[in-house]
Structures are given as C-alpha cells and as structure tokens.
Specification:
Blueprint: E1 13-14, H1 18-22, E2 24-26, E3 33-36, E4 40-47, E5 51-59, E6 70-75, E7 78-84, E8 89-99, E9 109-117, E10 139-142, E11 155-160, E12 168-171, E13 174-177, E14 179-180, E15 187-192, E16 212-215, E17 219-225, E18 230-238, E19 249-254, E20 257-263, E21 268-278, E22 288-296, E23 308-309, E24 318-321, E25 334-339, E26 347-350, E27 353-356, E28 358-359, E29 364-369, E30 379-386, E31 389-397, E32 400-401, E33 411-412, E34 419-422, E35 426-432, E36 437-445, E37 450-451, E38 456-461, E39 464-470, E40 475-485, E41 496-504, E42 517-518, E43 527-530, E44 542-547, E45 553-558, E46 561-564, E47 566-570, E48 573-580, E49 591-597, E50 605-611, E51 623-624, H2 628-632, E52 634-636, E53 643-646, E54 650-657, E55 661-669, E56 674-675, E57 680-684, E58 688-694, E59 699-709, E60 719-727, E61 739-740, E62 749-752, E63 765-770, E64 776-781, E65 784-787, E66 789-791, E67 795-800, E68 810-817, E69 823-831, H3 840-843, E70 855-856, H4 860-863, E71 865-867, E72 874-877, E73 881-888, E74 892-900, E75 906-907, E76 912-916, ...
Parallel strand pairs: 3-9, 16-22, 34-41, 53-60, 72-79
Antiparallel strand pairs: 1-9, 2-4, 4-7, 5-8, 6-7, 8-9, 10-11, 11-15, 12-13, 14-15, 17-20, 18-21, 19-20, 21-22, 23-31, 24-25, 25-29, 26-27, 26-30, 28-29, 30-31, 32-41, 33-35, 35-39, 36-37, 36-40, 38-39, 40-41, 42-50, 43-44, 44-48, 45-46, 45-49, 47-48, 49-50, 51-60, 52-54, 54-58, 55-56, 55-59, ...
C-alpha cells in the first residue's frame, strides 16, 4: 500500500514571496493536502491581475512526471487546472505563475499541493499538449481527450481562441476547418469523423520520449514513426542475467507506424535495443539505432513468448489475432486474423497438417482451427505459411498429463491442476504409484530456462512419491516429472509423464537451499527425514535420519573421513540415525556422501551427495548494483570485496562519498531470513559514510546499502551495493543501536555512548557528540532534561548517571535545537534489560496461530465487511506507519485490538486510530518496533445495542522496519462516530511542532467545534460540508503533560468530547 511521502519542510502550500508578489488567491482548494475519492479533480486559483500559469504533476511514490494528465485553462484573472490521476496513490502538484505583463520566460513556483487519490475507478488518458500560443483566454470545451477508447465518430469541437481568424485541426495530413460560432466572438466550432485513425496514433509517434522508463504493468507498447519504408528488428535483454529475451517482443508495421509489443515476464531492468535500415538497403547487418532501459516494477499479467518472425514477414504483414498461444488459450476454437499482402494462399501448419485460411477482401485472411487434439504433446511448432514459405512460428507448451502417465498407473494426490500458484517458496507435490517405478524430475526457471533441478528432491513412501520443490526467488517455474519401469532406462532417458507450471508468490519468503543429489540407487523404499540440506551456518550438531529397505549398514563419508550411522526402530520400520560435528569442513570444499550396503552387492553404493552450501544468493546480488551505484557517488573503501569474513561479531564498513547522499541500509540474518537492521549504525561525514555492524551469532548476514543524491526528489532509494558477511565468532553480546531521526544528517557524529543497555555501565556516562549548527543539545530520560555544554563550534559534551533506569526498558532521547526554541529528536536509545544478548531468532519469529485465526471470521459476511487496500490477511509492511482499510456496505459499530506478539502478547491498541466514512473504515496504525502484530477487528450493525462486539476479521502484520517514532493516538469517545474524521493533527506531543498547529476535522451535524485546554477555549471556523478548521499555538504546553480535548455542540449546550491528549 502507498504511504504518505516524506516532504521537505516548507514544500506544501504557499511558496513565498512569489505567492504574494503574483497575487495568487486560492479559489477551490484552500488546504495544501487534498484527499479525493475519485481520480478526477479541478483546482481553481485567482489572481489580482491576468496571469500566465503552468504546472508539474509528479507521482509522489515513484517520482514519475505525469504532467500530461493535467490541462491548464486561463481566462483573465482565473486559472483552472483539470487533473486526471492514472492510479490511486499520492501526487505532488506544483503551480507556477507570473503576471501576464511580465516578460520573464521562467515562471516561479507559487503553490504546492499533495493530492491523495484513494480510488482510481475512472479510466483516464493524457490531455493534449499545450503550446506557447495557447495562452490566457484560450479555452477548450470539447473534446478534452482523444483516444482509441473514446468515440471518434462525429466528434464535436468547441474552442475559444481570442484574435484568431481561422482555426483548423490537422490529422494524418488532412485539414478540418472550424466555423465561427458567432460573427464577432472568439468561439469556433466543428464536427467531423476521425474513426479511420483508431489504433494508429496519428500524432507524432514517440510514445516513450524518455529512454529510461518504468513499466507498470509489465505489458508495454513502444511506438515510432518512420519517414520512409524500413526493415527492423529488436532485442530484449534481462540486465540481471544477461539472457536474450527477444521472444517476449514483437514488431508490427503499418504504413509509417511501427509498434513494438513488449511483454516482460518478471520484475527487473531490461535493455530494449532497436535495429533498422532503409527497406531498399542491400546491407544484411542492421545497425543499432535506438536503445531503451525499461524498469519493470510490477508484474500484473503472465507473459508468454510471441511468435517467431521469418524474413517473409515483412513490411505490410500484420497479425491481429492470436498474438500468443499458451496453455490457457482456448485451443478448441482458435480464431486467426492476419494481413498478408500479395499472398495467394495462407495456411496454418501443425505437425505437417495444413489448415487454409479464407480471404476476406484485400490482404486480410481469416479462419478458425481446432488445436485441442494436440494437447499432451510437450512442444509443437505451429507455422503460418503463404505459398509454403514459413512466415512466423508460435511455440506452445502443453502442461499436465503426458504419454505414459496413465500407462504407468500414476495419479496426482496433492496438485491435480497442472498450473497453480504457491504462496510459499517451497512446495510438496505427491503422486500415487500402483507399481514400483524409476523416477526423476527437472525444475526450470520459466523466464530463463535456467536448470534448477538441484532445488528438488524425491522421497518414496509406499505407495506414494513426494517431490519437494524449493523456489529461491518469486516467479514462474516449469516442473517436469519423468518415470519408467525399474531397470528399464537410465534416469536421463526416462519419458516425460507430467508437467507443472508453478507461480511462486511467497507471502513470507524464507531462505531455501539446494537438496542433496540423489544417486541412481535412491529408489522406491528410500526415505530421507534429516537433513534435507546442510549449510555452513549450523555444522556443530548435524542429525541424520534415513529409512533404507534391506540395508545392512550405512555410513557418511566427508573428504575420506568415515562416520557410521546406527540402525534403530522395529522390523517393519527401521531407519538409520547419527549425530556428527561437521565444523572442520566449513571452510574447505567438502562433499558429504551417504552410502549403504545391500545384500548381494559388493561394497557400499552411494545414495546421497551433499555439498555444504553458503546462503543462496540471486545472480548478480553481490557487489555493485546498477544504475543506482554510479548515480550515488559512493565507492567501498574499507571492504572493496563484497564477500567479507568477520573474525568477531563486530565490524566497521566504510565508503567514500564523492558528493552528499542520503543513505540507509538493511541487515538480514541468512539463517532465519529476519531483518535485524537495528544492529547497524550509520555515521556520515563530508568524505565518508561508515556502517558499524553487530551480529548476534556465528553465521552469514546480508548487508544491503541504499543511497540517493540529496538533491533528488525521488522518495525511494535504489540499492547500490550488497555484502555477504560471514561471522566466524561471536564473543560479545549484540545490543541495538540508537534509532536515528531525520535531523541526524550528514556531519552529525556520536563518539560515545554508541549503545545504552542495562548490562553496561550507566553511572557517570560520558557523552561526546558532534551536531553542526545546533544551538542547544540535551538528553531527555524519564521526563528529566540533561543539558550539554558546547566545546568549539560543533562539539557537545556532558556527563551524568542513568543508573536509576537500569532494567526499566526506558527511552533516552538525544535532542537538539537549531533556533534556540524548538527541539528536534536526533537519536533515541532504549535501555533494555538482557539476561544474555538479545535472541534475534525469536524477536521477529512468526507467532504460532491456528489456520482459522486469519481473515474473515464467522459473522464477517453478515457485517458486509471486506478488505479494501489489501488482499491477504497476512501482510508484510516495510514501514511502521501505515493504513489498513475495509469496505463496508452498511453502518457499523466497530472497535479493534492491536497485539504486539514479541513481548508476551502486549495490548497496544492505543497505537491505532479508527476513522469511518460512508463506505470505508480506515485504521491508521503506528507500531514502536519491527516484528509481528495481530490486528483484531470487532463489529456489529449500528442499530444493534449489544454490549459485546464479535470478532469479524483478523490480520497478522509483519513490520520489517521501524524507522519512525510511534506515539499513541487520541482516545475516541462514543460520539466520535457516524462520519467524524480528523485530518490534522492526528498526534500531539512534546516531540511534535506545537507552534501554529493547524486543525481540520469533520463532525457531521455539529453546530460548533472547540478545543478545551484547561480553562482556555479555542473556537473553530465552520468551512461548510461539516468541515471545521482552526489554527493556534500550543507551544506553552510542551513538557507539561497537558490534556487537550476536542468537543462539539450538536443539539443542546452540552459538549461531547474526543480526548486527544
């Protein structure tokens, strides 16, 4: 879900002094933050004199410029901005203006809005481009947009163009002139048909003016216009793997229009290269003429290869349908519609069978074919030919049962559908056997055809066979099963009997590793319990448990060393066990082989081969990550190699910085997959960025560095460098570093103390910090202030005891004032009590919950409650400030409970604010720490007076990062219902800005709204539509534990209250 972006102080609202100098007056939206339920809005401004105005619109989350979705209309002293938002999210809208008489060409920024579009139900299209001559007084009434999706027959045109003598539209070389609406006015009208241009994009066809762009969704079209006939080809390359993915691109040419259809199979960066020459050129090698870099940020549709194009498929040939054929296609009734100029006959050729198409006038050919009879054949070429010369090929992969599946008596037990989605990155597929078979399998990454069979393992348990499949990354995988009679053929020659297409979308990804390699003798009757894989993280006590029919002995060999396994169990249930210390093989290339002796055989036969694995990493994961690395200006200084061996569990990693950058990080413990970023502390100076890293135990850790130029307006930081750190010993306990706030920026440095903890010295603590430009520095601990003494221009020192806080889980805030009045939080320490070092394995461990706990409960449907901004009840969020929304179909009484799972099921419901509109209930959630939380929703119909509200929906929230301070929301009283809504402020405390606090609330049917602070009363202004606003100072209350009460008058003189503090 999109969260409200962090904005620079002073960004929103009036941009002084230009706002006053130009004389801007806000006419329609006087508040700089706008929340709209639809994706269309008009913003109107006025000025004291005629102005020229323009705008910029940015997607606040991606930073993409979407100004083409805004149309500016000016008339005298009024300017109207018509805004159509393409998707639900946050947008930054910037207005630029100057008096019309001012000859300056560069218009200054005068006002900025933040627009939150909560729903995008109406399809929108870019507005027409406005040229310099479209100035003050020009006005477009109809049509506002032209698109193939709208009506193009008998288009009615109505424009106002002052001083114009004649107005015309030029489309595809044809002129359509307008008539004056009146003899003396400036209005012009016309009516004509443009339906012949549908689908041709008759404007200048540069659909992607920027050669680096984001593809959301993953199916895009790139259109070009050729001034003369050309021959062209294209190449699509996956930047991560370097693999040629050109089969996912298709070129179509019609007249001067060239369209490239690009269907990207997975998220990531792709290079798209275009090659071209004039059609009459005799040169065979086409030169590269244009390159794009495409960043696919979201995959919304499954992608399949396009048909292969032959040389005969040249200028003028055009494929209308089918663009692709795949397992989900309707193969019984495939409709063909193609354009092949000068062809005498056109046919579809399948396995040497010919299906001729029928000519439908001119070069158009159509027909229907039934291809269902070819199901069950793994790969078949379907060729289209004219005069028996092939012109393009469509490759079809048929899934499910293959020849031999039923013949060998096989049947599916767990996954009868050949194509399925897995919410876990490991899955077990079971088949039922009626007779002993020799079996094997193969796993391929669908997008690259990379062989990943090492991530599969088969176990036999009569009368079934279980295939365990690990999928290291999200995406599509092809899983093929092979089988044959025992002793009939080598495993590589077994016939293919069943095929799956698995879409891996892990809800909670976990680390997965290769399985042991099963040798030829691992056949029916063999069953592996432990270990399914061996990794370097845990070699001290490896437990083996294997079931082998008829074996007389079993042993493990490691680089020539022998370890005997013991036989346990009863006659019909015997298995072999052993516990071994394999630590000596951790840092050397080692193969572990399990072998056994069977009666009638000489010597032992090998059954399983393990290779001790380091943590699995994606291709190109380590080291430099482009394109963000070059843009950041960072270079590794202390550890240039991305694989680092740490002799102890504390290490310092340093980067050189060529310019000022915003930097953050993520530390992941490989053995658990848990994020433990609070064990990393970042310090920045003019030339260096230093990361202090602690690791709680021996093992592997992934450290990811993210960075962005400080001048960039983009809110998301790209990954620039990745390390794999191997911690060989952990002699010291690991404690969390202090939390860094936004004001702790470049130049700030803490020399001591780096950590505060109950196990450390808390008496006479020496404080030594560097905070440029600070005028005052202090520490706030348990309500008490400890002020620092300045030494020099930037250094601040202090010495005091905090021993009275030992064992109290107390927060200690380092604050600084830059104006001598208001203090800003810099660092937040937490003095935690530890018997030993913190157990990070258990801190963020997913709680054990029953299967029926999550999601809708018994009476959810009766209440008409359904998720709005999420799909699954188990959510992973990377911020500790977010919103959970539900749709409601009728008025409800609702409440909630938020439980922190990590600290003994602690109830922290005060960190949730519930707000309701007509058909949406929103829960604003802040949490103090990363980890797991349970959110329980209770509801009853509004007219049901029962005191006990039943539980109707439950969510499990996994918060991976907690980089912001969390504070309790205001307490809500019974009258705060039926559409009451607080826009700002949602939180008040001494760490917030308390000068000129802006209030905006919605209280339906209220006559008056006031705030009580002791004996002081602050009245609100009624803005209409039940909106009340106010602005007053609360700075005198800082640090006084004062109560602020919001009250409203409805019918009588009594006030009903919502307590805020």
């Amino acid at each position: 879900m999109d969260k409200r972006p962090e904005l620079l102080e002073g960004y929103l609202g009036e941009q002084q002094p230009k706002f006053d100098e130009v004389g801007i007056i806000l006419d329609s939206h006087r508040e700089p933050e706008i929340s709209i339920r639809e994706n269309q809005v008009q913003i109107c401004i006025k000025s004291k004199q005629p102005v020229k105005a323009t705008h910029l619109l940015f997607h606040a989350v991606t930073g993409k410029d979407v100004s083409e979705y805004v149309f500016t209309q000016s008339k005298d002293t009024s300017v109207t901005f018509v805004i159509h938002l393409p998707e639900s999210s946050f947008y930054k809208f910037q207005i630029y203006a100057l008096p019309l008489s001012d000859e300056c060409k560069e218009l200054p920024n005068v006002y900025n809005y933040l627009i939150h579009c909560t729903r995008a139900m109406i399809p929108v299209y870019p507005f027409p481009k406005q040229y310099a001559q479209w100035k003050n007084g020009c006005f477009l009434y109809d049509p506002m947009v032209l698109n193939a999706a709208v009506k193009l027959t008998n288009i009615y045109w109505h424009v106002v163009v002052p001083s114009a003598k004649q107005v015309a539209v030029v489309a595809d070389g044809e002129w359509y002139t307008f008539d004056k609406a009146t003899e003396t006015g400036n209005a012009f009208k016309a009516k004509f048909n443009l339906d012949h241009l549908r689908g041709r994009n008759a404007k200048e066809l540069d659909t992607h003016k920027k050669f680096e762009f984001k593809a959301t969704p993953n199916h895009v079209e790139i259109k070009l216009k050729a001034k003369k006939p050309v021959k062209m080809t294209q190449k699509l390359v996956d930047c991560k793997t370097g693999k040629d993915m050109s089969e996912y691109a298709f070129c179509q040419m019609m007249n001067q229009l060239i369209t490239f259809h690009v269907h990207i199979p997975e998220e990531g960066f792709y290079k798209f290269q275009i090659y071209a020459l004039p059609a009459d050129s005799a040169t065979k090698a086409l030169p590269n003429v244009l390159n794009y870099l495409i960043n696919c940020t979201r995959v919304t549709s499954q992608s399949f290869p396009f048909p292969r194009q032959y040389a005969e498929w040249k200028m003028g040939c055009f494929l209308l349908e089918p663009m692709v054929l795949h397992p989900k296609s309707n193969l019984k009734n495939v409709e063909w519609h193609v354009k092949v100029p000068n062809a005498k006959k056109v046919a579809i050729v399948v396995a040497d069978e010919w299906f001729f198409l029928e000519k439908k006038g001119g070069p158009i050919w159509q027909g229907k074919t039934n291809l269902d009879a070819y199901k069950g054949r793994m790969k078949k070429d379907i060729k289209m030919a004219h005069e028996r010369r092939p012109s393009l090929t469509i490759l079809m992969d048929f899934l499910g049962e293959q020849a031999g599946f039923l013949e060998y008596g096989l049947s599916t037990l767990t996954h009868p559908q050949a194509q399925f989605t897995s919410s876990d990155n490991s899955v077990e597929i079971q088949l039922k056997l009626t007779t002993p078979l020799k079996m094997s399998c193969k796993l391929l990454r669908s997008s690259t055809d990379k062989d990943m069979t090492e991530y599969t393992f088969k176990n036999y348990k009569d009368p079934n066979v279980t295939f365990m499949v690990n999928m290291p990354e999200p995406g599509y995988y092809k899983f093929m099963i092979f089988a044959g009679p025992t002793g009939a053929a080598a495993p590589k020659d077994l016939p293919n009997v069943f095929n799956y297409l698995i879409h891996c979308i892990p809800m909670v990804p976990k680390p997965v590793y290769p399985f042991p390699k099963a040798e030829h003798e691992w056949i029916c009757g063999c069953l592996l319990y432990d270990p399914l894989c061996i990794v370097k993280n845990n070699l001290k006590d490896v437990h083996f448990k294997i079931k082998l029919q008829h074996a007389t002995e079993c042993e493990l060999s490691a680089n020539g060393d022998k370890f005997k396994l013991e036989e346990k169990g009863y006659e019909n249930d015997k298995y072999w066990v052993g516990r071994f210390n394999l630590t000596p093989y951790r840092d050397i290339p080692a193969k572990l082989v399990v072998s056994a002796h069977f009666p009638g055989l000489r010597g032992n036969v090998d059954l399983l081969t393990y290779e001790i694995s380091r943590p699995l990493l994606a291709d190109n994961y380590l080291g430099i990550q482009q394109p963000g690395y070059d843009q950041s200006g960072l270079t590794p200084d202390s550890h240039p190699r991305p694989e680092v061996i740490a002799k102890t569990n504390r290490i310092e990693i340093k980067f050189k910085a060529r310019k000022q950058v915003k930097v953050t990080h993520q530390l992941i413990q490989c053995s658990t997959g848990k994020e433990i970023s609070d064990l990393v502390f970042k310090q920045s100076s003019d030339l260096y960025v230093t990361f202090l890293v602690q690791m709680p135990e021996v093992g592997y850790y992934k450290l990811q560095i993210f960075a962005l130029d400080v001048k960039s307006q983009n809110t998301s930081m790209p990954n620039v460098f990745n390390y794999l750190i191997h911690c060989e010993s952990a002699p010291a306990p690991a404690y969390p570093f202090p939390l860094q706030y936004g004001h702790w920026r470049d130049g700030c440095h803490v020399y001591e103390p780096i950590i505060l903890n109950s196990n450390l010295n808390l008496t006479d603590i020496n404080w030594h910090v560097k905070i440029p430009c600070a005028r005052k520095v202090a520490v706030i601990a348990d309500g008490q202030w400890y002020h620092f003494e300045q030494k020099g221009t930037r250094i601040w020192l202090a010495k005091f005891s905090l021993d009275h806080l030992r064992g109290k889980n107390a927060k200690v805030d380092l604050v600084a004032s830059f104006d001598g009045k208001e203090y800003s939080s810099m660092l937040e320490y937490v003095i935690e009590y530890f018997v030993k070092h913190r157990n990070y394995k258990n801190m963020a461990e997913r709680p054990n919950i029953s299967d029926d706990f999550l999601g809708p409960q018994e009476r959810c449907e009766e209440m008409g409650l359904s998720p709005d901004n999420f799909q699954y009840p188990e959510l992973k969020v990377d911020d500790n400030d977010f919103e959970i929304r539900f749709k409601v179909t009728k008025p409800l009484r609702m409440t909630h409970q938020l439980i922190q799972c990590a600290h003994g099921e602690k109830d922290i419901s005060e960190y949730v604010l519930k707000q309701m509109t007509k058909d949406i209930v929103a829960f604003d959630v802040q949490v103090p720490l990363s980890g797991y939380y349970k959110l329980l929703i209770f509801a009853l119909p509004a007219d049901d007076n029962s005191k006990n509200l039943p539980n109707v929906y439950n969510c499990l929230l996994h918060v991976t990062m907690a980089c912001k301070p969390a504070y309790p929301y205001p307490k809500q009283f019974a009258q705060w219902k039926d559409g009451c809504y607080i826009f700002t402020p949602k939180i008040l405390n001494s760490s917030c800005k308390l000068t000129n606090v802006e209030w905006k609330v919605k209280v339906p049917k209220a006559k008056n709204v006031v705030v009580f602070i002791g004996d002081d009363v602050h009245d609100f202004e009624n803005r209409g539509n039940d909106i009340f606003t106010a602005k007053f100072d609360l700075d005198k209350l800082r640090g006084k534990n004062a109560k602020v009460t919001l009250s409203a008058n409805f019918v009588d003189d009594k006030y009903n209250s919502l307590k805020l503090i």
